[in-house]
Write a structure and sequence with these properties.
Aminotransferase class V; L-serine-pyruvate transaminase activity; 11 helices; Aspartate Aminotransferase, domain 2; Aspartate Aminotransferase, domain 1; binds pyridoxal-5'-phosphate; 2 domains; pyridoxal phosphate; 338 residues; 4-stranded antiparallel beta sheet
């Protein structure tokens, strides 16, 4: 069975070996305040800086999920309220969570701008030049949900103060861990707000990670697997070039090779199209049929999500998916007849 589900998604095959090592070497049984465990955390953070080219002065912490990061941004980094220019289901959900913590008031008073870089639900993305425009026009903090693009695409990290991603998408790992990156300005904002009421208050997380520790018993297996996968992956500029090329191939394939098929791209404007999640639209009956036929052929397509649940399927273009698997899906789609 091969999977193009955009999260949880295919994990790197080496993860099986790494998980076995983590158990055999007793890493999963280490006390999380022990030197051995702190070394794993330290090395993981070093590798994140190195492999993802995160600026040296940006801090990195590990938490449980992207959803938790949405709440951390609202509770620890937003003094007034946040703005959410969104175009899909995840952006909307983030806004709803955030406004439960910091309700919407005068939009002009918002001090935090929340952007979903890659909207997994409909296969759109906010490119770096758009983010640069936000940076120019907005004086507060900018927080970016990069759940389905971090570790797949290269970013200009300086265009935002907070970036986060859970690892079950482009990192090619099992769910239950998220990477939270924050700038010196974000930390300064957290200090000014001084919010320290929660186990996951950013100040408390920061204080713990300064010692390569965590506020609570962390997902030690997940952290170890992240470390091992980061050791194995190439620098982000290389990954980025491959992912963009593959995305261009996918879009050309669907537009040019599948002309007499029931499929069309959900996103018509090429400038808005995601490089890591390709959304393909069709009638409800066609979508249902192709997903079932693909399943029969040993291929899991991504379901649609939110408003596009029944009228799209999604193809993850994540780094862990290999050439042979992409070819297999292309062959299936070329020969599939409704
Ligand atoms: C998957 C996803 C999330 C949610 O991640 P969790 O790990 O379930 O919290 C948030 N935002 C985007 C854009 C996603 O793709």
């Amino acid at each position: 069975m091969i999977t193009f589900y955009p999260g949880p998604s295919k994990v790197y095959p080496q993860v099986a070996q790494y998980a076995q090592e983590a158990v055999q070497q007793g890493i999963v049984s280490l006390n999380h305040r022990s030197v051995g465990f702190m070394d794993v955390v330290k090395e993981t953070i070093r590798l994140l800086h190195e492999k993802l080219a995160i600026p040296a002065d940006y801090h990195v912490a590990l938490v449980s999920s992207a959803t938790e990061c949405w709440e951390i941004v609202a509770q620890s980094l937003t003094a007034t309220t946040s703005l959410h220019p969104y175009g899909g289901a995840f952006g909307k959900k983030w806004m709803e969570y955030a406004h439960r913590i910091k309700p919407m008031i005068e939009p002009g008073l918002a001090d935090t701008l929340c952007v979903v870089q890659n909207e997994t639900s409909n296969g759109t993305q906010v490119r770096m030049d758009t983010l640069a425009g936000f940076r120019r026009d907005f004086t507060g903090l900018i927080a970016v949900d990069a759940v389905s693009s971090m570790a797949g695409l290269a970013f200009d990290w300086t265009l935002a103060d907070v970036w986060f991603a859970s690892v079950q998408k482009c990192f090619g790992l099992p769910a239950g861990l998220a990477v939270l990156v924050y700038s010196p300005d974000a930390l300064k904002r957290a200090e000014i707000i001084g919010e320290n009421d929660h186990y996951n208050s950013l100040l408390f997380i920061h204080e713990n990670f300064a010692k390569f520790q965590t506020p609570y018993t962390p997902n030690g297996l997940g952290i170890y697997l992240l470390m091992r996968v980061l050791e194995q992956v190439p620098p982000i500029t290389e990954v980025d070039a491959r992912i963009r090329q593959q995305a261009a191939d996918w879009y050309a394939f669907i537009e040019q090779e599948l002309t007499d098929s029931p499929w069309k791209l959900l996103i018509q404007d090429p400038a808005l199209r995601s490089d890591t999640v390709i959304a393909v639209a069709g009638s409800e009956a066609d979508i249902k049929a192709v997903k079932a036929a693909a399943q029969q052929a040993g291929i899991t397509l991504g379901n649609g999500y939110g408003d596009w649940k029944t009228t799209t399927f999604r193809i993850a273009n994540f780094p862990a998916i290999d050439e042979e698997e992409r070819e297999q899906l292309k062959t299936f789609l070329r020969t599939y007849r409704a």
